[in-house]
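Input/output pair, single chain:
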Amino acid sequence: MNAADPDILGDHHDLHEILRQGRIVYEAQETIHCPFFEGPVALTSDGFNHLTHKPNRAPRNVNEQKLKLRLLKKALRIIRKAGTVQEYRKGMETFGLPAKDGFTKMKQIQYWAFHDIVGEKKQFLLRVIVRRVGDGKIHFWSVMPHGRINRQKLYEEGIEED
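Output:
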């Protein structure tokens, strides 16, 4: 990743420092405006927690946490300018903890993904996920490089311009 990009946090080796910086960026506002939705995307504690924990609440490995937190500022900027959705998914998923009877509630969950090409020397596709649970608020959910950075190829040669 390009350390010169001001929207990508530096690769400090201390997870706690990257976590602190990411929390400052995330908690600076409660919502951000997204042109695609013509309205707000909430920055909830669920979204921030998802950067450091898997859906089963197990912690992500340290390198994955650092990567997602370092890309957070860039992800929020992508949401602010997103006019076109690249992916959409809707389905029923378990939500919350099981009740005393052992059953877990199911809710309809929608996901939208916005993509952007980032970096200067090494370019890669960044994918930002926004979701809505049931009739709730649309909120930030995740950020990730689309595929593996070191294996992803974005071709520039052999493409004809119109």
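The beta strands are 31-34, 39-42, 87-94, 106-118, 124-133, 139-145. Helices lie at 15-27, 45-52, 62-70, 72-81.
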